[in-house]
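Propose amino acids for all 302 sites.
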C-alpha cells in the first residue's frame, strides 16, 4: 500500500497494489490484484497520481514488465498510462423488492417462478456448506477451463467476512443437493458479486435465476442500495444475462504503464494464445487442477 501525505502529514491518496512474479506470466505490479477492480482511493489530483506512478517506475521499472491498474472509484487522466476498455460492469439499484420485481425482464420473472414450481429451494449458505460449495465450484472451473482458488479462500470468506457482515452467500437446492451458488462482498451500501456457479444438469429448473433473485430480495430487505454484478466482457453470455435484471451498464477501464513490454498480456479465454492451455486444463484430473490452480491464479492476478 502506498500513501501520498500532504503538508499536514495526512494521507490524501492511497494506492493498494500486489507484486506478481511468476515463471509463466512474468513479473507485474497489479492494483488491485486478485479482485476485479480497485485502484486509487482518495484525492484524484493528477499531481498526486503521478507521484505514485513515478515512485513505482523508479522501484520496479528495471525488472518488471508493466503496472496494471484496475479502475476504482475514479477515472484516471494522465498521459503516462495506456487506457483500455476490457470490460463493462452492471449495477442494479435496489429499492422495494416488489417494485423492482416489476422492472426486471419478464423472462427472468418467468425463470424464477419456474424454479419455485420445480421445487428448487433457495437459502443463505452456511460455513457447514463449504465442502459442497467447493465441489460445485471446482467442477465449474474445470468446465470453464479456468484455474480455481484454494478452498482456503472459502474458509476465510466465512471466518473473516460473513461473520462480520462483509460477505453473503446463497444457494439453490433440489432434493437437498446444492445446484447453484452465488457469493458476494457486502460493503456500505453495496453488494458485489464475486462467484456464481451452477450444475448445468439442472439448468432447466432455473436455479441460477432463483439464487440471484433471492440475493437481490435479501439486499432490498437489508437496505443495500447497489447490487453490483461484477465485471463482464460484452461478447460473453453473462453480458446478456446480467443486462436483464433492471441493471445499468457502466464502463470499466484498465490502465497500464508499460515498462519492459510492448503490450499487455490480455488474459482472456477468447485469446487464441490461451486456447490450447484451456483445452488441456479441461482434461486435467480435478486433484491436479485443485493443487496448481491457485498458483496459476496468483501469477495471473485474478
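Proposal:
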Amino acid at each position: 500500500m502506498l500513501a501520498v501525505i500532504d503538508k499536514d502529514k495526512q494521507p490524501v491518496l492511497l494506492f493498494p497494489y500486489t507484486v506478481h512474479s511468476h515463471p509463466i506470466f512474468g513479473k507485474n505490479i497489479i492494483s488491485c490484484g486478485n479482485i476485479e477492480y480497485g485502484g486509487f482511493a482518495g484525492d484524484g489530483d493528477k499531481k498526486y497520481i503521478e507521484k505514485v506512478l513515478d515512485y513505482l517506475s523508479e522501484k520496479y521499472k528495471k525488472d518488471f514488465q508493466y503496472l496494471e491498474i484496475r479502475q476504482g472509484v475514479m477515472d484516471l487522466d494522465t498521459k503516462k498510462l495506456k487506457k483500455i476498455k476490457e470490460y463493462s460492469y452492471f449495477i442494479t439499484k435496489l429499492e422495494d423488492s416488489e417494485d423492482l420485481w416489476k422492472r426486471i425482464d419478464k423472462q427472468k420473472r418467468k425463470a424464477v417462478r419456474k424454479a419455485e414450481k420445480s421445487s428448487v429451494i433457495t437459502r443463505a449458505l452456511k460455513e457447514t456448506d463449504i465442502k459442497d460449495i467447493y465441489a460445485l465450484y471446482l467442477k465449474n472451473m474445470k468446465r470453464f477451463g479456468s484455474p480455481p482458488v484454494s478452498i482456503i479462500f472459502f474458509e476465510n470468506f466465512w471466518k473473516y467476512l460473513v461473520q462480520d457482515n462483509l460477505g453473503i452467500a446463497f444457494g439453490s437446492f433440489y432434493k437437498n443437493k446444492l445446484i447453484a451458488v452465488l457469493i458476494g462482498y457486502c460493503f456500505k451500501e453495496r453488494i458485489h458479486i464475486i462467484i456464481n456457479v451452477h450444475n448445468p444438469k439442472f439448468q432447466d429448473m432455473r436455479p441460477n435465476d432463483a439464487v440471484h433473485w433471492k440475493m437481490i430480495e435479501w439486499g432490498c430487505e437489508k437496505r443495500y442500495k447497489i447490487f453490483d454484478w461484477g465485471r463482464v466482457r460484452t461478447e460473453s453470455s453473462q453480458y446478456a444475462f446480467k443486462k436483464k435484471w433492471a441493471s445499468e451498464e457502466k464502463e470499466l477501464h484498465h490502465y497500464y504503464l508499460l515498462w519492459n513490454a510492448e503490450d499487455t498480456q490480455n488474459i482472456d479465454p477468447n485469446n487464441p494464445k490461451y486456447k490450447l492451455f484451456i483445452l488441456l486444463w479441461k482434461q486435467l484430473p480435478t486433484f491436479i487442477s485443485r493443487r496448481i490452480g491457485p498458483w496459476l491464479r496468483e501469477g495471473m492476478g485474478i
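DSSP finds nine helices and 13 strands in the chain. The chain has two domains: 2-87+253-273, 89-251.
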